[in-house]
Amino acid sequence: MAPFDKTSDKPKVVVVMPAYNAAKTLKITYEAIPHQAIDQIILVDDGSTDRTLEIARDLNLTAFVHTRNYGYGANQKTCYTEALNEGADIVVMLHPDYQYDPTLLPEVLAPIKAGDADIVLGSRFLMGKTVEQGMPWWKYLGNRFLTTLENWALGLRLSEYHTGYRAFSRRALEEIPFYLNSDKFVFDQEMLVQAAHLRFRIREVPVPTKYFPEASKASFVDSVIYGLSILLLLGRFLAHKTSLVQLRQFQSLHSRYRRAEHLA
Question: Looking at the 3D structure of the chain, how many domains does it have?
């Protein structure tokens, strides 16, 4: 993959914000974004009951609205679909809860712009001292266990899979069948399993995080359910990989189109 030509082929960078009741943190997140590094911000409001949508419109964001709370995965499906419709070359997901540092957007974008990656993850663990930054110990232990398991299943060596700070090239989003994924929180992991299986290049950059009530809403029970859903995901993937079953979820959209054209 050749790097983008910054003079003649400047990539269109679109930031997407999957939002649900983010009124308390949306504005400070927006103000911290280095706007010279991006072209557009899309916010998808997933049935918020606070002033999230009103604030988004005051900030002149491109806003899309779900009539009810469909879920985090469903929100991202709309985010990526609308970003592609807007002509994005690179799409960055940034949570509007101010947990991840918006000022690091240029660092997150850099590997894709240079042609060194298709997907970039902002990793909390590359920074070190994650628990000292405020991550609850049970989240830390769960993250370490699941990351080790996912690295084994996918043959990768990532420092973490559970970050909400991600960038995707247009090609990755066009080939990964993300619309077949869950509407729930496991969507993020399904995307990475698909990307790894389809051999997209994944890179990581270190990012610090903040932990406070508005940014850390997942309870212990929610985290357990999330962990179990990842175990089920890895089981499905390994069944597909070993040809016990063939699942469309782990097949490239482009390869499916090519096969369909060949059969026609």
Answer: 1
Asked if the structure places residue 3 within a domain, the reply is no
Q: What's this model's pTM, rounded to 2 decimal places?
A: 0.89
Q: What is the pLDDT of residues 64-108, one digit of tens each?
A: 999 999 999 999 999 999 999 999 999 999 999 999 999 999 999
User: What single-letter amino acid sits at 239?
Assistant: A
Can you tell me whether residue 32 is helix, strand or coil? helix
| In contact, 240 and 163? CB cutoff 8 Å | no
Report whether 94 contacts 102 (CB < 8 A).
Answer: yes
For residue 128, CA distances in Å to 166, 194, 206 come to: 19, 27, 9
Contacts for 93 with CB less than 8 Å, ≥ 6 apart: 15, 16, 17, 18, 76, 79, 164, 165, 166, 167, 168
Two tokens at 234?
A: 């890895």
CATH of the domain at 173: 3.90.550.10
